[in-house]
Amino acid sequence: MNARRTLATALALLAWMTTGAPGWTQGFAGLGTEAEGFTVPERGKPLAFPKDHGPHADYRIEWWYVTANLTADDGRTFGAQWTLFRSALKPGDAATWSDPQIWIGHAALTSAEHHYVAERLARGGVGQAGVETAPFAAWIDDWRMGGGEGQSGDPLDHVGISATGKYFSYTLNLDAKGPLVLQGDAGYSVKSAAGQASYYYSQPFYGVEGEIVVDGAPIRVKGNAWLDREWSSQPLAADQTGWDWFSLHLGSGEKLMAFRLRDRGAGFTSANWISADGKTEPLATGEVQFEPLRTAKVAGREIPVAWRIRIPGKGLDITTQPLNEQSWMALSTPYWEGPISFKGSTSGVGYLEMTGY
Amino acid sequence: MILSLRNIMKSYSTAEGRLEILKGIDLDLDAGETIALTGESGSGKSTLLHLAGGLDRPDQGQVIVGGRDIGALDDRGRAQYRRSEVGLVFQQFNLIPSLNVAANISFHARLADRFDPDWEREMTERLGLQHLLARYPEQLSGGQQQRVAIGRTLAARPRLILADEPTGNLDEATGDSVLDLMLSLGKSAGSALLLVTHSARLADKLDRKVLLRGGMIAG
Amino acid sequence: MNWIVFKALLSHWRYRPLQLATLLVGVALATALWSGVQAINAEARASYDRAANVLEQNRFDQLLPRDAKGIPVQAYARLRRAGWNVSPVIEGDHRFGQLRIKLIGIDPLTLPEQARAFPVSGASDITSFIGGDGLLVVSPRTVERLGKLEGMVVRTSSDIPDDAAFVDISLADRLLEGDGSLSRIVVARDQRVGLAPLSEVAPELLLRKADETPDVARLTDSFHLNLTAFGFLAFVVGLFIVYSATGLSFEQRRSTFRTLRSLGVSLPSLTLMLVVELMLIALAAGVIGVVIGYFIASALLPGVASTLRGLYGASVPGSLSLRPEWWAAGIAIAVLGTAISSSQSLWRVWKMPILAAGQTRAWARASAAAMRLQAVAGLVLLTGALALVFLGEGLASGFAVLGGLLLGAALLLPVLLSAVLRLAERISRGALTGWFWADTRLQLPGLSLALMALLLALSANIGVGTMVSSFRQTFLGWLDQRLAAELYVTARDEDEAARLRQWLAGRADAVLPIWSVEGEVLGQQMQIFGVADDPTYRDHWPLITGTPDVWDKVASGQGALINEQLWRGQHVGPGDRIALPGRWDVEVVGIYSDYGNPRGQVILGLDSLVLHYPEVAKLRYGLRVAPDKVAGLKAQLIVEFGLPPANIVDQASLKRQSQAVFEQTFSVTGALNILTLAVAGFAMFSSLLTLSGIRLPQLAPVWAMGVRRRDLALLEVARTIALWLATFVAAVPVGLALAWVLLSIVNVAAFGWKLPIAFFPLDWLLLGGVALVAALVSVCLPVWRLASVSPSDLLRIFANER
Questions:
Q1: Using 50, 70 and 90 to split pLDDT, how confident is the model at C217?
Q2: Letter string b/e over residues A121-139, b meaning 16 or more CB atoms within 10 A of that residue's CB
Q3: Domain containing C327: what range?
């Protein structure tokens, strides 16, 4: 999962640079698997909160990534995405305009009919975008994710997110119903057989309520949300071309994070089975099986929008359907990201992200 | 003898080669005598008149006026000759458009330094031009224009008047009256007249007729 | 339309190649000068737009600081976080070696797409743009002048004006040694609904609305109007040529038309064929004209560029880019011009009876009534111009006065000439002289257009020449006053400046600070200078008017001087108080002349300047030294003090440079003058040539009565000279009136300064000589034709119908 966001972020920047050129391969090649002076994640280094909720300027790439599955009173379902990427041109901070940190915001609101997206760019050092830890605040322009003053517990337990695009806006309150979850080996998440890795933790237990505005009409919604936090410096192996990533809220209250990094061979899969009380159970590569069932024409490409996911060891066998198969993030770096629902051995909702198509 | 043409030859180069117009002409004109030069189109009568007037030079032969060979004179000499000794009347475009009738009439006399207001007045009256004096040539009819041209020539009292179809553009009655005027006034001035015409009727009014045919005098 | 008939019509030109050439050249010249001038204007305007677009982003609303300190970065962050779609800019001048470059530091992440001045290409470009050591995007010409820069990457883009560089905002901040504060903030057009108002988010900032017309474009309007006027003048003169050429070609083909119509060609079809013929000629000539126009424009543009730099500080590239719309516009104007100038002839064909008399009319013979009408129109125009002198105001009125004066004088010229010739005819004695004057008068209608063209060209020359020479005289005198100090030095930074002041004490007779700040006065951005209380100023400064104790008041801080432009433009004079930046005001105590500066300017006492603007850069100084010590001090400054030679300018070379700028400034005017004169000469030539074709019947009787062809030819020359002389004599007062209008009305409106007029008769003589040569050249061919016409051609006139 780390890798997919890493790539997305890096490509966002690169593609912006190339002003929309089809830059996947080029971007991938240009991403650089070298750390180039940046700090590299190490296994066994414990994460510390709330400090690690804040930015890590010595790492190349980092994000605060929220996805929410929402339901209106009348039963209509929606999806919301709020993402802040940090991408460093050089390690470290510097005063005002010399700061090498670039911030990128992506926001989306998905209904069965529409998929609205927006993007913001900012440079660090001047206050236009940034992340602070106590109280927690992450922002780019007028998009915000943050908690109130004097909160007890973890600063991320109670946060609001808001974003505005041309045709949509939303203001959602997120309430953690369970603990933070460290992915991989206590937050050290391996991304390839060659050993690329990132620091990665999540908050998959958010309950959500709030208001979305679609085409000028406000709608009260509630549902589940999932936060991913990840930072790294040299995330990808040279032959990896893209990924398919799932975050699922199972009917049992359990959560599943599963991804497949595609390469020329069988790919690298990884998954984490999270119990309803937050205990994690990382699954070895190969234990989870992904099977595309149906593709759709999206932005001129063939994208697999329906999947079968099996984890025999857990008795899981589900098929997923998108809320809106045209959930295309038509931004400077384009990718597919949208809410899904699934049926089978269990049912529920979640989010799917696919890149590299 | 005022004009003697001796063995005049003249040819022009044209697109079809050299065209011999005059093939040896001999002609004499006495003082005060009037001769009608007749012949078909292209017989060379106009060319002969031009040579006599010093407007052009013969290829061979002599144009003797007052003992001088006009054909041998240079441009300046021939201009002086036209100015002082010849009066020319043509079929058209005789007048100077920028000058009024009065100025046109006296123009040649002044050039020839023979301006005589009394004579001019008399002539103007006899030509019936006295009330046209302030007009400009373009405001005159064809007959009036030719009368002014004749008046101009006679006002200068040349010894020799050369006229090339002076009534060619006029109707018969007007033409007759213009010619009669010219003849009678010419007599008063004592000028000899060589008149080119294709009209036998007009030719009959003159002292003598010379017929040109194929560049030769035929009778 | 019948091809065989059309060919018969066209065959005319085979026998009259010179006539065809005249027609083509006439249309081509008219088109060339017109489209050339248009091309220059278009190029300059495009460059202002580009500059404004690129440098000021004037197409966008802007947020500006209220004072000189700039916009704190926090204000920017506040705006963004309130949802404002804005982008920061840090800009300023920076010296790369000898070259002063305007740095525009932008943030590519937030800059609106439409404001992006250069194509961003390649990921590595942007990485180095934002995060590298430094990437400059400049114009190709600036690259050449910059040479190699240590540690920086230079990219070119032709969209960027010369002497400017786009850099990342971080690089601009670093090079300009700023603290991150912004020069301004660009407001994107695309804003989200329900934004908090500026007064809540950032009340300390000023909003300047977008402006489609760049300041410099407005400033230079008068100059372009000037060029356009010249182009139009040349175009009109060119149309005169076309008018006479088509008139003649139609006149000579009358019998052909008659024959064709008797053979059953209908009138509409004949007219259509003639229209097609003319349009074909117009198209061909239009293409030639646009090509010539392009070369004229290319040749003139460097001059125009330096004019604009010299007068307005506007940067225009010295090279022309080919725009497709010129082709269209140029060819359209050629066709239009041909249509206008041949409409009368076409109308005559349309109205011609099928059996019209074969006799050649006196060509273009003007009736007495037409002459009277022309006289009345001329007088009305002159009277109108005179009335506008007293009643009008502003640039448009100034140009209206110019137009009325020139056109009125041109219309009156044939009337006056005709009267003079009538008089001459009356008083002349000899038959030939009388005929000479009468015949000249007869030619007048055919020549009057050419003579009017000549009058326009000559008086424009005299007028503009007098204006420029008067300006030069005044300017040079003013330079002597203004550049009183012997040496001008600039320190590289404040430390050096402090050391310099110390070092100079005792070495120079006086050290005169030349310090200035930029600020808004009476709604305009301008420089505010401070001057020391020194005899140099009291004795030399070019004051136009002032109170008796003007320098005492300035020195004590009680008064300020303003330049003539501000005085005339804003109607503030001695005794008035003006508000200065920093919320204080001061009394105006004097006005000084300030040529070559497009903007207003204020001068304060030095103490007053430093008191109100403590942040003023104290880098420039004028040094007074005995003339024989100038070289020595300069050498000492370089060798002992260590100031770069480029930072020391002596008075003499500064004057030389200023004069060079001045001369450059008016080189275009000179070139256009000569071109206009050339076109007028050609108009004369084509008119004479046209007339010579129909002159034989007029001359033949005179020849027959004993005037030699040579003498007739000499008389033709004499006639041309007489007409030229008369026109020239008429052009002198018209030219002087023109100069007066330029100096006293147009200059004041356009530049804000008034100049005394000075007379330069030698220049007129020179011009007269040139015009005489042109007249003689123009008469050469027609006269040679006349002198060598064969007697048989003359004789044919008298005999049969031609």
A1: low
A2: bbbbbbbbbbbebeebbbb
A3: 1-58+233-356
Whether C682 has a pLDDT exceeding 70, the answer reads yes
For residues C595 and C535, membership in a common domain is answered with yes
Tell me, yes or no, whether C466 and C498 share the same domain. Answer: no
Give the single-character DSSP code of A1: -
Residues C53 and C73 reside in one and the same domain:
no
DSSP C738-773: HHHHIIIIIHHHHTS--------HHHHHHHHHHHHH
Given this model, what pLDDT does residue C295 score?
85
Cα Dmax for chain C: 102
Interval B39-89: pLDDT, tens: 888 788 888 988 998 888 899 999 998 888 988 888 888 888 988 889 888
Q: Which of residues 37-56 of B touch C (CB under 8 A)?
A: 46, 50, 53, 55-56
Interface of A with C (CB under 8 A): 14, 16-19, 23, 26-27, 30, 89-90, 95-100, 102, 121-123, 126-128, 139, 141-142, 164, 166
- Longest pairwise C-alpha distance within chain A: 54
User: Would C218 be classed as within a structural domain?
Assistant: no
CB–CB of C81 and A16 under 8 A?
Answer: no
Question: Quick one: closest CA in C to A138, which residue?
Answer: C81
Physical contact, C and A (3 or more Cβ pairs within 8 A) = yes
Contact check, Cβ <8 Å, B96/C439 = yes
- Look up the ipTM and state it: 0.87
If you search the block for the tokens 């920076």, which residue do you land on? Answer: C94
Query: Measured between CA atoms, how close is B141 to chain C, in angstroms?
Result: 13
CB contacts of B110 in chain C (<8 Å) are 430-431
* Same domain? C511 vs C440: no
Angle between helices C221-252 and C254-262 (to 10 degrees): 60
CATH 3.40.50.10710 fits A2-355, yes or no: no
Q: Is residue C221 part of a domain?
A: no
pLDDT band at C416; cut points 50, 70, 90: very high
Q: Tell me, yes or no, whether C82 lies in a domain.
A: yes
Are residues C388 and C348 part of one domain?
no
Tell me the pTM.
0.61
Encode pLDDT of A190-236 as tens digits. 877 777 788 999 999 999 999 999 888 899 999 999 999 999 886 56
Search chain B and give the residue with CA nearest C444: B98
Joined together, the tokens standing for residue B212 give 């040109």
Please report which confidence band the pLDDT of residue C314 belongs to, taking 50, 70 and 90 as the band edges.
low
Rounded Cα–Cα distance for residues A53 and A32 (Å):
26
Residue C638 is assigned to a structural domain of this protein: no
Chain centroid offset of residue C79 CA:
44
C606 close to C532: Cβ distance less than 8 angstroms = yes
Q: Where are the domains of chain A?
A: 2-355
Same-domain pairing of C164 and C84: yes
Report how far residue C122's alpha carbon sits from residue C56's, in angstroms, rounded to the nearest whole number: 26
Q: Residue C55: its pLDDT value, please?
A: 57
State mean pLDDT over C314-325: 68
Tens digits of residue pLDDT in B192-219: 999 998 888 889 999 999 998 888 888 7
- Contact partners of B by the rule of 3+ C-beta pairs under 8 A? C
Mean pLDDT (chain C) is 81
Do residue C12 and residue C101 come from a single domain?
no
Residue % of chain A over a pLDDT of 90: 51
**CB contacts, 8 Å: B10 with chain C:** none
Cβ within 8 Å, pair B83-C700: no
Q: Which residues of C touch B88 (CB under 8 A)?
A: 704-705
Task: Give the number of domains in chain C.
Answer: 4
Tokens at residue C460, please?
């424009």
Residue of A nearest to C123 (CA): A17
Answer yes or no: CATH 3.40.720.10 is held by domain B34-46+74-217: no
